[in-house]
Design the sequence.
C-alpha cells in the first residue's frame, strides 16, 4: 500500500525496479529500501527466528534491531531497512544466523 | 590507514552541528553515518517545531535537516561517509568502519559520539509479530518511502512522539483506532492531544496491551485496563482488530559503542537509561572521546543541535584550535540550551544531568 495523497509530502512517480523475492520477479521503485519495497507489496515477514521459526517483520527501520535481516544476493544479515533496492537483486527471507554461500 | 583530526559518529542533528563548529575552527572532520541519508530522525519529521526562532521553530523537521546538511556539506575540511557503519572504536582513537562490503580503518585524534537513540520496546505476548513497529519506523515508512504501515492501527503511548505520529498516520490516510496509555494521564503536550481528539481518535489512559493476536502477522490486540498500582484489572480485557500496532514508549540512548573503549556509564532514568558519564565539556571518561545529543540523554532535536554546536566547540578547544568566534558562540549556545531546558519538559533533563554529574560513577 502506497500513499497517493498527502497534505504535506509529495511522492512523485519514480522508475520501477525489478527484483527477485523468494524466486519470484516483483516490482519496487527507485528510492525504495528493500524493506519498504517489500512492505508496499504486502510482504511483512522478512525473516524467521532462529530457534522457534517465528515470523519477523521490521521494527526500527534505522538499522538497529536486526529484525529485518535478509539474504541479499547470497549475503546474509543485510539490514534491508537501510539498504537501497537495486535492479535484479535476489532477496530471500533469512532463517538462520547467516551462512555465506 | 587514513588519518583525520576529528571523527564524528552519527550524522543527525547533533553530529551535523558539531561538524559545523569543528570545520569552522580549522579542524579536519570525518562524519560517518550508517543511513542512506544524513539528518538522523529529522528527515522523517513532517511536523513544525516548537520553541524559539533560533532553533528553527515553525519549521518542519525535514526542512531543518536540509538546513543543517547544507550549512556543512561543501566545506573543504569535511569528509562525509554515508551507508557506513562504525563497527569498532578503540582507546587509541582508531575507528573501524564497514561500508559496501568493505572494512576500513581510520586514525583520529579525537572522536565525538553522536549516535542518537533507539526505541524502547514493550513486553507482551507475541510482541514479535510482523505488523508491530516502533513509532520511528512508522514515520520512516510513511514519510520517507510513502508506504503505509497498515490500514487500521493502534498507538501505544501518548507522549509527544505517540501523539505526533498518530496525527501523521491520519494525514497519510491510516485509521488510528485509538491511542492507549498505561499512565493515568496523557504524556505529551495538550495541544497535540486535543488536535488528535478533535479528529475523533480516542485516548484511553490506564490501559495497556496484554497480547498480540495473529499467525503470520498481526490481526488483533487484546487490551486490558490497569488499576492505580499499574496492575491489570481482571475482566476488563477486550479485543480490537488492527493490522498494525505502533509502540511509542520512549527512547534509550545509544551509548554502546563507548563500551568498546571502557567509557564509564551510569544509569539515570531521567535521561532514558544508561548514559556515558561526561564532563562539563562533554568529554567522556576516556580522554579525547566526546559525546553529545540523545546518546547522552533523551531530549528534543533542538537540544541535540545545541549540544552538538557546543561539543564541536569543546572538541576544537581540545585541539587548541579555537573557533574564530569561540567565546561568543559558546555563550550563545549555552544560553539557548539553558532556555530549552527551562521549558516544562526540561525539568526531567535537569534532574538527570544533576544525577549524572554528582555521586558515584561506579556503574560500568
Sequence:
Amino acid at each position: 500500500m502506497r500513499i497517493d495523497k498527502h497534505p504535506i509530502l509529495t511522492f512523485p512517480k519514480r522508475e520501477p525496479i525489478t527484483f527477485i523475492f523468494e524466486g519470484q520477479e516483483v516490482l519496487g521503485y527507485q528510492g525504495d529500501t528493500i524493506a519498504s519495497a517489500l512492505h508496499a507489496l504486502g510482504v511483512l515477514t522478512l525473516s524467521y527466528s532462529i530457534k522457534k521459526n517465528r515470523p519477523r517483520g521490521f521494527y526500527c527501520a534505522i538499522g538497529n534491531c536486526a529484525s529485518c535481516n535478509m539474504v541479499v544476493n547470497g549475503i546474509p544479515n543485510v539490514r534491508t531497512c537501510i539498504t537501497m533496492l537495486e535492479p535484479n537483486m535476489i532477496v530471500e527471507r533469512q532463517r538462520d544466523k547467516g551462512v555465506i554461500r | 590507514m587514513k588519518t583525520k583530526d576529528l571523527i564524528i559518529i552519527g550524522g543527525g542533528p547533533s553530529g551535523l552541528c558539531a561538524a559545523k563548529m569543528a570545520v569552522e575552527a580549522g579542524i579536519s572532520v570525518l562524519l560517518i553515518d550508517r543511513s542512506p541519508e544524513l539528518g538522523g530522525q529529522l528527515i522523517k519529521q513532517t511536523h513544525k517545531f516548537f520553541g524559539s526562532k533560533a532553533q528553527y521553530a515553525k519549521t518542519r523537521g525535514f526542512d531543518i535537516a536540509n538546513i543543517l546538511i547544507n550549512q556543512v556539506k561543501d566545506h573543504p575540511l569535511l569528509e562525509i561517509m554515508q551507508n557506513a557503519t562504525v563497527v569498532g572504536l578503540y582507546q587509541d582513537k582508531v575507528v573501524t568502519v564497514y561500508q559496501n562490503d568493505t572494512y576500513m580503518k581510520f586514525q583520529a585524534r579525537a572522536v565525538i559520539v553522536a549516535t542518537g537513540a533507539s526505541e524502547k520496546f514493550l513486553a507482551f505476548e507475541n510482541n514479535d509479530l510482523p505488523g508491530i513497529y516502533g513509532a520511528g519506523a512508522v514515520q520512516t515508512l510513511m514519510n520517507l518511502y510513502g508506504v503505509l504501515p497498515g490500514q487500521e492501527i493502534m498507538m501505544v503511548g501518548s507522549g509527544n512522539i505517540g501523539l505526533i505520529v498518530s496525527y501523521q498516520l491520519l494525514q497519510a490516510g491510516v485509521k488510528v483506532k485509538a491511542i492507549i496509555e498505561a499512565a493515568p494521564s496523557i504524556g505529551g503536550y495538550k495541544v497535540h492531544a486535543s488536535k488528535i481528539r478533535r479528529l475523533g481518535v480516542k485516548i484511553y489512559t490506564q490501559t495497556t496491551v496484554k497480547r498480540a493476536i495473529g499467525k503470520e502477522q498481526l490481526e488483533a490486540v487484546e487490551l486490558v485496563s490497569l488499576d492505580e498500582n499499574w496492575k491489570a484489572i481482571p475482566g476488563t480485557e477486550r479485543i480490537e482488530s488492527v493490522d498494525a500496532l505502533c509502540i511509542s514508549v520512549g527512547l534509550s540512548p545509544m551509548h554502546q559503542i563507548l563500551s568498546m573503549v571502557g567509557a564509564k556509564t551510569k544509569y539515570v532514568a531521567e535521561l532514558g537509561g544508561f548514559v556515558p558519564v561526561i564532563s562539563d565539556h562533554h568529554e567522556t571518561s576516556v580522554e579525547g572521546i566526546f559525546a553529545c545529543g540523545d546518546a547522552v540523554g533523551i531530549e528534543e532535536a533542538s537540544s541535540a543541535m545545541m549540544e552538538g554546536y557546543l561539543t564541536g566547540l569543546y572538541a576544537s578547544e581540545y585541539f587548541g584550535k579555537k573557533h574564530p568566534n569561540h567565546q561568543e558562540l559558546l555563550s550563545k549556545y549555552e544560553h539557548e540550551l539553558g532556555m530549552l531546558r527551562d521549558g516544562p519538559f526540561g525539568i526531567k533533563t535537569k534532574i538527570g544531568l544533576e544525577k549524572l554529574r554528582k555521586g558515584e560513577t561506579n556503574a560500568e
